[in-house]
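ok so i was messing around last nite and threw this chain in just to see what happens. nothing serious, just curious
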Amino acid sequence: MPAAPPVAPELAGVIFDLDGTLVDTESVSDRVFRTALERLGHAMTDDDVHELRGHAWSFIGPWMQDRFGVTEQAYRAEAVPLWDDAFATGLATFPDTVDVLHALQDEGVPVAVCTSSGRHHLDRILATVPDLAGRFAVSVSATEVTNHKPHPEPYERARRLLGTPAARTVAIEDSATGVAAAVGASLRVVGRQSGTRTDLSAAHLQVETLTRPVLDEVLVA
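result:
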């Protein structure tokens, strides 16, 4: 009698990246970077923008100082009003990712959000974007950790707060920085392309569109 096929592990929890995965803030961030620095007399290249994607301010601030000689105070004076305008206009979510989030909550699967952005930015999004409001009991921002993505600490913290085993916890990411952090935390990782053609080859599975079955597939990929 042939051996029975192995039983696929059951999904225990899912941790979502925020910017570029749940909400389309990467395009806003790129525009803010370019506009704020242009007003300060500097021009960002596409490579510059790509280099910053997925990083926390602990990386971006020194990078900006070294690259352009621009201080955090000078940059924020230009950037904050631009972000305020973006929030006033309304931030768009990615329908496929939001649909999966809602499906998981209907199933009772624990979910968390883990971001390289600071707590103020995260809370502002969760409070003002209707598709995400009230959806996350567990959230981790750059403010709560010592080491930021690509270090695994943010994802390790989020998983501990969820209380789920790493091998059955899936992370969903759109940046190479985030994928590296989630892989380093021993999670199963789905790399979701958000239109920037980022190298997500370190993820266990790559998709253009997120669906609920993908989360089961990546557990055995």
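not much to say yet. The radius of gyration is 18 Å.
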